[in-house]
Every structure is written in structure tokens, then in C-alpha cells.
Amino acid sequence: MNLPTIAQIAKNLVINNKGLLAMDESIPSCNKRFNALGIPATVDMRRAYRDLLITTPHLSDYINGVILCDETIRQMSTDGTPFTDILKKAGIGIGIKVDTGEADMKDHPGEKITQGLDGLGKRLATYAKMGASFAKWRGEIIIGEDIPSMECIEANAKVLALYAQICQEAGLVPIVEPEVDMAGNHSIERCLEVTRLVLQAVFTQLQLHHVALEAIILKPNMVLPGLGCDFQVGIDEMADTTVSLLLAVVPSTVPGIAFLSGGQPYQLATSRLNAMHVRYKDKLPWALTFSYSRALQQPALSTWLGNSENINRAQEQLLHRALCNCAAMRGKYDAEMEYNGRW
Ligand code: 5MM
């Protein structure tokens, strides 16, 4: 491992008030989103959609890195140029999702453990040759009746740390994504309690496994009530709850925190990021940015609908969401931006 080099890659992923575009949906997840909109779920439609995202003009004005999945990193644009070459030329970092999905946790009904450590070093070496400089692994924690258990929290934290250690040894920056799922009707207090336990377990395991914290990016959930909770809190309360927790548990050596959006309405995901910057300007020891999938892609996907005539408009939608979130990182986003596109 060349620590200064990977620490610099991590910094570069979060500099200049830009964010990350997560477009690493597995084949089943991508197909599910296509099916919901009546888009044929075929390999070529997935390729065409990812082509649209990657070739969006000026994407690098707002996006430092994109996260791909195994299928996409091997694909090419319509003119035969590998996606990786297009990204390199645009100066956008190439990330790769390396977990292989979830399995049910033995003796823990309703809980999951992320898979993918087998052969990981070898796969990372292959991805690095293709141009990847960072990787991503998601550990999902579900809130429900009597769950999550500490066993599930600790088991997922441990595999996240093992993954991060293997990534750094292979010279790639690990994005460490412990996601407390927003599904459910739990309160913000419950989400706070679980997210605290999860992040504490993750940092304990990262330290036990000698992961260099200056060369990771943390990708957590915001602290929010469940999507089905009757009592949804205001944006300022959510911002205070989330940032106070992160200040308490995330060491300042971590260069960046890049939120997942988790199924939030996309404008709300932007407003919430904005509020954190307005309220904690100059008090944040790490870059606080976005690594959204749905909250960046949703309008683009529902504009494209699988029709090549809609590509330009879909790309404008993607760029607009990326622009709004970059404005949020400066605390300069407001509802008017949705119409005039200026901050
Ligand atoms: C939580 O999902 C991650 C962030 O996406 P959202 O902003 O939409 O919440 C996302 O990167 C996710 O890990 C990938 O889409 C891969 O998910 P699957 O379920 O396909 O492995």
C-alpha cells in the first residue's frame, strides 16, 4: 500500500465542493427501476442508460467520481469507446462496487450480512488495471421489531473493515457504506440510536483492522425517521441530529463523508444537505458531500424512459440535480434554483 497516494485519491474524491454519482445498481436493482417505468430490462438498455449518464456534458463540473458495477465497468459507449476511457478523459474518478449482495444472517430472522470477501484481492487487481481508483461496499442494517441485533451490527462492521483493509492493500480507496435502511415506521430517535451503534462499531473495526482513516470515504445514511413514520421532523432538526452524531463519532482524519440518499425525495435530499452546510459552516472537519444514486438519477431516468430522443433532456436533468447538490454544499441551494438553475 502506498498510503500517501491513496490518501490523495480520497481527498480528490471530495474536493472543490463536488460529489459522487452512484450508478452501481446491481443488475436486479437496475431492472427493478426499469420495470417500474416500463423500460425493457435488457443488457443493452442498461448499457444505453449508463452511456447517457457517463457522457453527460460537463458532468465533471459537479462530480468527482462515479461508482460503477461489474457489468458497467466493462461496457462501451455507442461509438465503441470504453466507459472507463470516457471517464478518464473527463477527469472523473472510477469507482467499483465490489460487494456481491446480501445473504440472510443465520439464526437472525430479517437481518442481512453483506457478501463478497472471497477472491476480493484478485478482483480489485483486475478493476485497478481497468482504471478503478476506489471501491464501494454496502452493509445494510434494517430497523424492525427487535432488530437490528448487536450481532448483525458487529458482523457487518467487521466485513466492512476487512473489505477496507483489502482495498487499501490493493491501492484503492474504500468507500465504507454502512446503511441504516429508511424503510419502516421508526422514529428519528430510533434511527439515531441505531446509526450511532453502527458507526461506533464500524470505526472500532476499522481501527482494529489497521485501516488508514485518512484514505477512506464514509458513506452513511442521514439520521431520519423511517419513510412510514407518522411524525416527520423538520429539516433543521434533522440536520442538527445528523451532524451532531457525525461530529461525535467520525474522526477528523477521515477526509470525506458522502451521504447516500436512501429513497428520500430528491429535492429533500438536496435541501437537507444544504441545511447541514448552512448550520455547520466552518465547523465541519471533513468534506460533507453526496454520493446519491436515486436522488441524482431519478428525474433523468424518468425523462429518458428508454427512448433515445430523450437523451439530451435526461442529461440536463442529471446535470441539474448535480448542480443543485453542489450548491447545497455551499449552503446556497433554495427552491428557486429548481427553476432558474442558478445560485
Ligand atoms: C443505498 O444505496 C446506495 C446509494 O443509493 P441511494 O442514493 O439511491 O440510496 C447505492 O450506491 C447502492 O449501494 C447501489 O445502488 C447498489 O445497490 P444494489 O442493491 O443494487 O447492490
Task: Give the structure's gist in a few sentences.
The protein is an alpha/beta fold.
Counted beta strands: 10
Level-2 CATH architecture: Alpha-Beta Barrel
**Span between termini:** 41 Å
The CATH topology, please? TIM Barrel
Specify the oligomeric state.
single chain
Largest sheet: 8 strands, parallel, barrel
Cofactors, ions and other ligands in the entry: 2-O-methyl-1,6-di-O-phosphono-D-mannitol
CATH homolog superfamily: Aldolase class I
Give the proportion of residues in helices.
Answer: 40-55%
Order of helical and strand elements? HEHHEHHEEEHEHEHEHEHEHHH
Our count of domains comes out at 1
Task: Describe this protein's structure.
With 343 residues, the protein is of the alpha/beta class. It has a single domain (3-340), classed as Aldolase class I (TIM Barrel, Alpha-Beta Barrel), CATH 3.20.20. 47% of the residues lie in helices and 14% in strands. The chain has 13 helices and ten strands. It has helices spanning 3-13, 27-36, 43-54, 70-73, 83-90, 120-130, 150-169, 188-208, 235-249, 266-280, 294-304, 311-328, 337-340; strands at 19-22, 63-68, 93-97, 102-104, 112-114, 134-141, 173-180, 217-218, 256-259, 287-292. The strands form two sheets. An eight-stranded parallel barrel has the order 1-2-3-6-7-8-9-10, surrounded by seven helices. Strands 4-5 form a two-stranded antiparallel sheet. Helix 10 (266-280) links the parallel strand 9 and strand 10 (287-292). Bound molecules: 2-O-methyl-1,6-di-O-phosphono-D-mannitol (5MM).
